[in-house]
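Hello K.,

You asked for the raw outputs rather than the summary table, so here they are, unedited. I folded two proteins back to back in the same session to keep the settings identical. This is the first:
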Amino acid sequence: MRIFSKWLLSYIAASILVFMTGWFYYQTFFRVSFQDKMKQDVIEMVRLKAPDLIKGLLRSPTAVTFEEFDIMNWLSSDKRIASLVFLNYNGSVRWHKYAPYMTLEFDEYEKKIGTTLQTVRTAYSTGEPAIADLTGSLCEISIPFKANNNNTVIGILSLQVSTETADKMIGESMMRYTYATVAMLLLIGLLMALFQNHVVVAPIAAMKESVENISMKTMDLRPSGRRDELGALSLALAQFVDKVRKEFHSVQEREARRAQSEQLWWQVVLGAAVSKRSRAMVVDEDNNVLYANFEINRGPSPNGKVHLLDVIDSQQQDVLRLIGLAMETPQQVVEGEVMFNGGKAAVRVIEVQTQDNLKRTMITMEPRA
């Protein structure tokens, strides 16, 4: 897998992790905190009107005053408040938007609405606001009112607050967060992709192309000249190629000297062991002619070497058969009489092995009178 593909997959995984972290934070902290803040805001809103409500309770313990009536209507107009009931100190309904419920006793009121207002009992017993989550998106808040300099509860306001509006606001905020996060991640990803392509991918591709275009003759690789890690890598690679080039040329020179020395050695050996009338040559394991005591008319191949079949063509099957037998039985002389260049010749072939474990085949052909 390419570097850019790996980076892209890693970036996508990191982006998903960031998004999921934000969603988890929304579900775990932000949503709960926002709802708690909304509940506290409702309580504070009621507390602002608490002095007027306490005055009305003290002035008229059983019947709601006009000022209280206005406050109830004002509270009912708040979209967060689904319903509310104002109770007297004796538990009777002091105010409700549904007129037949007014003046009902607390127990009778609970039967009418078909639910138990547990927070009312809690607020009355503790003297502090009580909050309880109901089914769906509702929560119940009961706020007690106390007479001045007296801990006696003289009235309770019970509200059912809807978190639907809050959830809608949170959902809208989450959508804005989603759009903003996606846009930001795309922008950052695009900038990082351009940066990585310019700083990492393109230089590596250029380095790869330079390595692929190295000539075996020159073995030349120029460093990029960058002053970063890729530049250091390019310089190290250029130095390595230079060492390989020097070693390669050194091996070529040693091989050339060895071949020249071996050719001279075979010239001396064949000059001493073979008569001047005889034709002799030595071929290597690839059947390339190393030395011949006669002139070869055919030119060398592109690699500068002359192959055995350039001297003894495929029509001279007897000679090739003897050479094949000699290769199958190393260190043994194979002899035979063949027709060569229009006349009979005694052929002797032997395959030997040098100290360097190199195989050499010596072929001598002595014309018959």
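The second followed immediately with the same parameters:
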Amino acid sequence: MKTNNKGFTMIEMVLVIAILGVLSSVIYSVFQFGINSYYSGSRQVVQQDKVVDIIQMVRSQVEEAKTVKYDRTEKVLLISSDNLKDIDMVDNSSKNVQCWKFDDNKLKFRPVGQTSYDDLVYDLDTSKSSFDINSEEKLAINIKPLPLNEQYKNRNITEPVVAEISVRYKVAK
């Protein structure tokens, strides 16, 4: 009698399917971890880009300005291309004055001649973001983005980033 040994037994098939199931779940979890790490890293880069963009925007305006003042009561940075002895918040829309302020989790900017603010940068922690001019005539910019990484909390900017720009000879008293 001749036997036919050209196939797989049922036990061999069940073992192969079980091994493939275990391997596919391991491969999927590694793949999912890679995707989460990529998106987390890209959100961290977005936070860093916001900080760099704000510093560059304000620095370029301050470098071109002739007068700079920080109004502590209104929490507004005032920048003018004119030599003004004093800049105040009253009717400065007619003057050549730009206004910057952190409000409502945004950096807001009011161009020359406008009365309303434009939103420039979103997702900022405005309770920890601020402008100030210190006694050494340096403009200090504190910028704290809102946390974007919920799963990887250590990939958020946790403390305000501080940049100082010299405003010597530009400060309006």
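Residues 84 and 112 are 15 Å apart (CA to CA).

Happy to rerun anything if the numbers look odd on your end.

Regards,
P.
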